[in-house]
Design a protein that fits this description.
- The complex is a heterodimer.
- Chain A is of the alpha/beta class.
- Chain A contains 8 helices and 26 strands.
- Chain A has 3 domains: about 180 residues, FAD/NAD(P)-binding domain, CATH 3.50.50; about 110 residues, FAD/NAD(P)-binding domain (3-Layer(bba) Sandwich), CATH 3.50.50; about 80 residues, FAD/NAD-linked reductase, C-terminal dimerisation domain (Enolase-like, domain 1, 2-Layer Sandwich), CATH 3.30.390.
- In chain A, the strands form 7 sheets. A 5-stranded parallel sheet of chain A has the order 3-2-1-7-19. Chain A has a 5-stranded parallel sheet with strand order 9-16-10-11-12, with helices on one face. In chain A, strands 22-23-26-25-24 form a 5-stranded antiparallel sheet, sandwiched between helices.
- The two termini of chain A are about 35 Å apart.
- By secondary structure, chain B is mainly beta.
- Chain B has a single domain, classed as Rieske [2Fe-2S] iron-sulphur domain (Rieske Iron-sulfur Protein, 3-layer Sandwich), CATH 2.102.10.10.
- Helix content of chain B is about 5%, strand content about 50%.
- Chain B is built from 1 helix and 11 strands, in the order ββββαβββββββ.
- Chain B has a 4-stranded antiparallel sheet with strand order 2-3-4-9. A 4-stranded antiparallel sheet of chain B has the order 5-6-7-8. In chain B, strands 1-11-10 form a 3-stranded antiparallel sheet, with no helix packed on it.
- In chain B, about 35% of the residues are buried.
- The chains are: A alpha/beta, B mainly beta.
- At the A-B interface, α6, β22 and α7 of A face loops of B.
Chain lengths: ~400, ~100
């Protein structure tokens, strides 16, 4: 039985793994290593309630700091892990300490893509991943100021909404035809554009930032199409990439993150990965999938811990996330990249619908706007991989639970 | 003020499996009926203030707040799944004739 459990990344995935290890009987040492100084915390509030000043930071902590001590979880915070020696079974930290392991979890997460265009080094240009990032943006958030948000993925859209809600004048720029276009497609993306416009966000679509201008601080954003948007600050949300550089030379297979099997294990025995960094084999969709979701961090962190304990349980969770923007609650479940049919239950125009991404008569994924119940109820249908009666799926008088497969 | 049982609604209004919300002395309380046993708890989810009677899905004695997926045990108010961290307050219930009363 392993006795030294080491986790790199004091993230939601990493902390959940540490907690699960202890709750499910790990009897050796459990060591949680994190580059950030804070105890592990949840990031969803950073673009929403925390950013708007409505929720204190300690509400975001996965557990109070004392918890780790009480449960004999050693935390090494504010210290970056630099290297893994897979054959010597050892992690090297930035302070040159060596931490030996019998089982290792990589939960290093992702980092924001940097914007590399002229003027990108000016002051007043932010991205959002950590609580410090959120604090820097909060310090700029004074009602009446002008903000430009670059990118209308989930983070950009949520930040744009939060800024607008705090009384700032917001313009958001997105290269695609609609916000969230890549994941949700044009029809659903259009509903999000309408939502933002209805609340006063200016939206510039099918255009990209060519340059930031200003002397020391950003004063305007110039787009490829030639728009010049004066602003007091900029928030860029242009996506993330998995944080894998410390794995160089480790022999661990990297391809769009750390490649793991359905048991969260890498090609190196005893080394696992979970959370944003893990590109995992999903047994239900029978393909590699890497997602950056809150729920995946928890569920996969726990699943990896169980496998580190030798329980050999596949991780087959249906991925799910939410995004609150203004008064709208968006939820997505499943996994899809393309779709033959978009089956809509409800009304796109009234922003009250469940839209199902259907291939071969099966629901691969679904997105709901203000349809939490429908999203919950469609998840078993996604998981079943069975064909469904699309007319009944569309029919609002049919309870989705009645479409469940019999077994 | 000493706790006392306060009339909330007629039991006929709350059949098995149903969730309903009622204002009792200024507090919004969710009520449900699990196999003939009535449970009462604060209607407001402790995560982001959704109404559990409106947004909740009930399975057995577990209520899922479908806004963000938090799960609570309706018998104890205990959190069964995050993102909620704090339990919902539960209230004792009793039936007098055809009336459901909640201890406030």
């Amino acid at each position: 039985m392993a006795s030294n459990y080491v986790i790199i990344g004091a993230s939601l995935a990493g902390a959940t793994a540490a907690i699960t290890l202890r709750e499910e009987g790990a009897d050796g040492s459990v060591i949680l290593i994190g580059a950030e100084r804070e105890p592990p915390y949840e990031r969803p509030p950073l673009s929403k309630a925390y950013l708007r000043g409505e929720a204190a930071f300690d509400k975001s902590l996965v557990r109070p700091l004392e918890y780790y001590k009480e449960h004999d979880i050693e935390t090494i915070l504010g210290t970056r892990a630099m290297r893994i020696d897979s054959s010597a079974r050892m992690v090297e930290l930035e302070d040159h300490r060596h931490v030996p392991f019998d089982a290792l979890l990589i939960a290093t997460g992702a980092r924001n893509r940097r914007i590399s265009i002229p003027g990108g080094e000016l002051e007043g240009i932010y991205s959002l991943r950590t609580v410090q990032d959120a604090d820097r943006i909060r310090a700029e958030m004074v009602a009446g100021r002008r903000a430009v948000v670059v990118g209308m993925g989930f983070i950009g859209s949520e930040v744009a909404a939060s800024l607008q809600q705090k009384g700032l004048q917001v313009v958001a720029i997105e290269p695609a035809k609609t916000p969230l276009f890549r994941v949700l497609g044009e029809e659903v993306g259009q509903t999000i554009a309408d939502l933002h416009r209805a609340h006063g966000v200016g939206i510039v679509l099918e255009d990209t930032v060519a340059a930031f201008e200003g002397t020391t601080r950003v004063a305007s954003v110039v787009t490829k199409a030639g728009l010049r948007l004066n602003c007091d600050f900029v928030v860029a949300g242009i996506g993330v990439e998995p944080a894998v550089e410390m794995l160089e030379g480790s022999g661990i297979h990297i391809d769009n993150g750390v490649v793991v099997d359905a048991y969260c294990e890498t090609n190196v025995r005893g080394i696992y990965a979970a959370g944003d960094v893990a590109n995992h084999h999903h047994p239900i969709f029978d393909r590699q999938i890497r997602v950056e979701h809150w729920q995946n961090a928890i569920k996969q962190g726990a699943a990896a811990a169980r496998n580190m304990l030798g329980k050999h349980v596949p991780y087959d969770e249906i991925h799910w996330f939410w995004s609150d923007q203004f008064d709208a609650n968006l939820q997505y479940a499943g996994f899809h990249t393309k779709w033959e049919q978009l089956v809509v239950r409800g009304s796109l125009d009234s922003r009250n619908f469940l839209a199902c991404y259907v291939n071969d008569g099966r629901i691969d994924a679904a997105v709901g706007l203000n349809r939490g119940k429908d999203v919950r109820r469609v998840m078993p249908l996604i998981k079943s991989r069975r064909t469904v009666d699309l007319d009944r799926l569309r029919d609002e008088s049919v309870d989705l639970r009645s479409l469940q497969p019999a077994d | 003020m000493a706790a006392e049982f306060v009339t909330a609604m007629k039991t006929i209004e709350i059949p098995v499996g149903r969730l309903s919300a009622v204002d009792v002395r200024g507090t919004r309380i969710a009520v449900t009926n699990v196999g003939g046993t009535y449970y009462a708890f604060d209607d407001t989810c402790t995560h982001e203030q959704c109404s559990l009677a409106e947004e909740g899905d009930l399975a057995g004695t577990t209520i899922t707040c479908t806004c963000h997926g938090s799960e609570f045990d309706v018998r104890t108010g205990k959190v069964l799944a995050p993102p909620a961290l704090l339990p919902v307050k539960v209230y004792r219930t009793r039936v007098q004739d055809d009336v459901l009363q909640i201890e406030m």
